[in-house]
Amino acid sequence: MNYLQRHKGIILGLVTLLLLFFAGLTSREGSRMAQVGEVLSVPFAPLRQAVRNIAGSLEQRISYFRDLKSLTEENRALKETLAQQVTDQVELESLRKENQELRDALSFDRKYQDYRIIVSRIISRDLDNWGDALVLDAGRQQGVNLAMKEQYPGSCAVVSGSGLVGRVIQTTYNTSRVLSIIDHGSTVSGVLTRSRRHVEVKGLQELKMKGLCFVGNIDYDTDISLGDYVETSGIGNNYPRSLIIGQIVQVNRDERTRTISAVLKPMVDFQSLNTVVVLQGKEEMP
Predict the structure, then answer these.
(1) Of 141-155, 175-189, 207-221, which range is least confident?
(2) Which of 108, 180, 208, 227 has the maximal Cβ count within 10 Å?
């Protein structure tokens, strides 16, 4: 039995050849071998059928693996095409956003004609990504001059197409460091657009991580509601007037102390901000 098991393949091959041999000999009608073949065909019929089944199964398996290889190659090609389409879409969206940012930047040239417009890109920011330490690729060489603030109030304010970003607090030859309005060291004199009442917009550490600002110094009788907009008042030397800061998203009234405070959401999305404009006094241009 062990011998038959070990040589099963060889035996099956020999039997197959034998059947083929007999098939050739018995193909002629009326021949003696044909008569012999008819006699032998009876006991060998099951074996012959088994051979046919094996051959058919083998052909099916070969066809299956051939189709599998074709589908695998097609699937790989489709994945490569899809990946390229996704890459193209991302690049297109990036170009669209950059184009809109540049259009917004150019609109400031018409709105703030008393200022020189310096378009700049953000090249570095804090690890928390909320932008309180933005570094721009424009510095003294490009015309950013902190000394101009005394002569031109609002000079070195930093804006985007959406609204106020912050102000330049330090410059190098080719870069500028910007204090954003959500930083805990920032204070902006503002005015409620609807009621024209004055407020102060401050950056607080606990709100910074949410991308929000604190609004204080609000008179108790001030008409303030959710959805009100706040803009710069122009008081002081840091910012020109009428720059949109953000929108009131929370109002807190304390009847006991008769005080009001609020929370503001900046119009600028600091997490996706890439291009800004520095407003600079027009004198002493290089």
Answers:
(1) 141-155
(2) 180
Q: Do 123 and 38 share a domain, yes or no?
A: no
Same domain, residue pair 134 and 238: yes
Fill in the DSSP letter of residue 140.
G
Q: Is the pLDDT of residue 140 over 70?
A: yes
- Could you tell me the pTM of the whole model? 0.64
My answer on whether 53 and 154 are in the same domain is: no
Under 8 Å CB-to-CB from 267, ≥6 apart: which residues?
Answer: 162, 163, 164, 244, 245, 246, 247
Q: What is the DSSP string of 146-167?
A: GGGGTTSTTTTEEE-SSSEEEE
- Verify that 276 and 142 share a domain, yes or no: yes
Distance (Å, whole) CA 162 – CA 231:
12
Q: CATH no. for residue 277?
A: 2.40.10.350
pLDDT score for 286: 45
As a whole number of angstroms, the distance between CA 278 and CA 176 comes to 10
Q: Which of 171, 161, 170, 205 is nearest to 186 (CA)?
A: 205
What is the average pLDDT across 65-73? 75
**Domain identity same for 133 and 196:** yes
Specify whether the CB–CB gap between 143 and 103 falls below 8 A: no
- Express each pLDDT in 230-282 by its tens digit: 999 999 889 999 999 999 999 999 999 999 999 999 999 998 889 999 999 87
Query: What would the pLDDT profile of 29-68 be if each residue is shown by its tens digit?
Result: 555 554 545 555 555 556 556 656 665 666 676 776 677 7
Tally of domains within the chain: 2
Domain of 175, in residue numbers: 112-281
Together in a domain, 31 and 149: no
What is the DSSP-derived secondary structure letter of residue 48? H
Cβ-contact 241, 114 below 8 angstroms: no
